[in-house]
Amino acid sequence: MLRKIISDGLDGRESRLGFFAESKFDEGLSVENIKVSGVAKVVLTFSNGAQIIKGSADDVKAFYRSSDTPVSIVNVAKRIGSNTVQSMGNMKVYSFPMQEYQKVVKCKLALDSCFEDLKATLLAGNKVVINCQEGMHRSVEFFEQFKGRLGI
Predict the structure, then answer these.
(1) What pLDDT digit, counting tens, does each position of 27-47 carry?
(2) In this structure, how many other beta carbons lie within 10 angstroms of the beta carbon of residue 61?
(3) E strands along the chain, which residues?
(4) For residue 50, which phi and psi values (nearest 5 degrees)?
(5) How many domains would you assign to the chain?
(6) pLDDT, tens digit, for every residue of 5-29?
(7) For the domain that residue 114 is a member of, what is the CATH number?
(8) Exposure on the CB side of residue 119, measured as CA atoms within 13 A
(9) pTM higher than 0.90 for the full model?
(10) What number of CA atoms fall less than 13 Å from residue 46's CA on the CB side?
(11) Is residue 141 helix, strand or coil?
């Protein structure tokens, strides 16, 4: 089955970007909707209400505030530093610093360390938020590799 990919145009109207094949990852969750907003924000919504949200630091800043809903955040915005994981209430923040030229290898290594936790977040019906500074390079790479590991 094919579903529409919807984009919020800059003028506020929705426009069709194309179609994607409906797919399921191994636990049977299916992608119900993909929404693209502005230049960099993408939201995948699953059949259980879980979401993967990819965007720039500005697109996702609201998720860094405390929330009643559990959320896992993957921050690949920093270019130098050490990998860290911080838990704050219902929020878990994974920080994986990387340069653009390292993004393929660094995203693979990052996913090696956090994939099962992120997958469990989705299976529980919660959100996984992925961001870099502009939402155009490092977060896109992580997002694509994450989707690939999920089989979507």
Answers:
(1) 667 787 778 776 568 899 999
(2) 11
(3) 2-8, 14-21, 31-37, 41-46, 51-56, 71-75, 84-88, 91-95, 127-132
(4) -65, 155
(5) 1
(6) 444 443 344 433 344 444 556 566 7
(7) 3.90.190
(8) 20
(9) no
(10) 24
(11) helix
